[in-house]
Amino acid sequence: MNAAALQQQAIAAGIEVAWTDAQGKPRMLSLDTIDALLHVLSPHASSDNPAFRVVTCGAPIGMPTTPREAFCLDTRRHTALTHDAHGRAHAPEQPGHYLLEVGAREVHLAVAPKRCFGVADLAARDNERAWGVSAQVYGLRRSDDGGLGDNQAVSAVGRHVAAAGGDAVALSPLHAATPPDAGFSPYSPSHRAWLDTLQMGPAQVAGTEALHDALEQSGQAQAWVQSEREPLIDWLAQDVMRHRVWTCLRERWGQQPGVRAAFEGFMRQAGDALHLHAVFAAHQRLARTRGEGTDWRHWDDEWSDPHSACVHEFTQRHAIAVEHECFMQWLAAQCWQHTQAQLLGSGQRIGLIWDLATGFEPGGSEAWQQRELVMEGAHIGAPPDAFNPDGQDWGLAAYAPASLQRSGYAPLRNLLDRMMSRGGGLRIDHILGWARLWFVPTGMSPRDGGYVRYPLNDLLGLLALASWQHRCLVIGEDLGTVPVDLRQTLATHGVYGMDVLQFTRDAQGAFIPPARWRTQAAAMSSTHDLPPLAAWRAGTDLGELARVHAWNARERNGALQRRHADIDQLDRLLQHYPANSPTHSALRAVAESAGPLALFPLEDVLAERQQPNLPGTTSSQHPNWRRRLSWRVPRLDATLRWIGRHRRVRTHD
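Above: the chain's sequence. Below: its structure in token form.
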């Protein structure tokens, strides 16, 4: 096949043969990359006549036949369809899920509102400008936490935020994870629809007495106390200790009749999806205990089929271990439900904002259950940019766009329903991937990857529908190599972007005054991948990067000079926001920005100098996702009140 024919085949398959890099330079994919991506996509042929369609309320359905009515799956009632002068059937005006009879087959129609639920749709108050904090949950501290942050610590922080007039606490990802090792990352989940069972405080549901009984009976009381004194989290030790404590808690408190009844009700509602995840998680834990791998692709061949006789036999033989995993999911769900209720009860209008990771472990539970929809032979990542000149391979899996569409977007719909039901907001990591994802074929460099397109309009329609069903606002991380017009498309659909202080600049690199920040974006002082404001000013991150990557004197001096120039430029902007420190000036600027929602990482609120994650480093080079955050109530309250006061005013140019 000649080059032109290969490129045409790639375009038809959704591969972006030509694209523009972060510096605005046109790029063309190599023929080797095109050939590799076509091979990866080949098992996922698209359907010309899908049985699942997404359409906006009242819009033409766009089908060759003209159905007269639709059956609403939400209300269980038939509704007549209107037709225009051209005879085209239009979707119902009421959002929801419908069935259409089209000839001899049924078509599932998802009717979406025009935009997502937003800040303006929240309960009214004198000040409509919402704000909150963002927290790395694992790093929060409270008394009797056993050395790991949890929902009880989030509740405590949330009460202080509410007292200052705030509306939300945004969380780090809390997806179900593989039993962790030293390289744990919350953005590498096993299954995104289920919860992490380490970062929970069961005493909120079971009571302190039941927890302490489990600590004593499991022999972990001393280790629990000792872990609270550690400056960094040992994820492997935490997993071993908590598994023993949680097991004892289930065996004792969990057997009470009222507890069993609530748990069994949860099981019936969750159905087969939870059961399959629990079976997988139980096998992973057993494999870890035996010193074996936790990646299902390296298990016996029969494990490639979740419904095989081998899997059934394991389920029967290890029924208690499977039930334990189900019980932990119920307990985690109860804990976070209590926390959300507490935040709303304290006066917050949003409460918890959950974080949805972009991909999932290729060897984890989600990939195992949905293996027919997953792209094999490639990882997702990012192309080269100013921060990562070699590009990035995240080692994560993603769904093939055509197979996802053919499934009726079932995994995504289930995922959105579960996550949005737990809080008042959802942050979508790397929402650029809803338009296109950078895939790195196995054995190739991230520089040699390529973009594969996704059905963005369908995905945003389903997002808007779920958002209104759960009254949940949506934030999309729109940082990086952003496709042309994507930010406008997201804004039209009511998805808030992210205006981060360090990145919100004009074409010449000058900082944009907060009064001119986007009104369809969440304003933020920093993110988990950036140094906190105080650390950025001090160059703490540059010192760490210089150490890890062994920069020479020229590289160190060049980085410091660029940073000093940025600081000088930012200070010219911050002179309009006087405060008792540069950090407070920056917080004030973000608080007075035009965005309808502002989020402040606790690291900035407390003027910390260590960042949660230092991109470009491994766990052996830097303690990513392991730092614990110390906070004193007077400092926290004073800064939150300062933010709240300035959030109530709008900035000048």
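The longest strand covers residues 105-112.
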